[in-house]
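User: structure tokens for this one?
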Amino acid sequence: MPYYLYIMASGPRGTLYVGVTSDLPLRVAQHKTGELGGFTKRYHVNRLVFAEEFGRIDDALLAEKRIKRWRRQWKIELIEKSNPNWWDLATNYS
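Assistant:
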């Protein structure tokens, strides 16, 4: 079963959210509809801008913890390496 580290954004260089899930299409849909509430709903963080697949949950969680400690600029650089236009990648994982 694959696990995903993902980054959601409110828009280009906007508010960022880093998370882990085993069902990326479902989790993205939950963020988009506001079903999860909390931070992502409050700040309209509903655009999938980065995702990385892992084979083990432990590896995905370690990557999440590491990236959450990063400076904002480092997160932006990570996103822009693979998604320089900040496109919503949700359709790639549906």
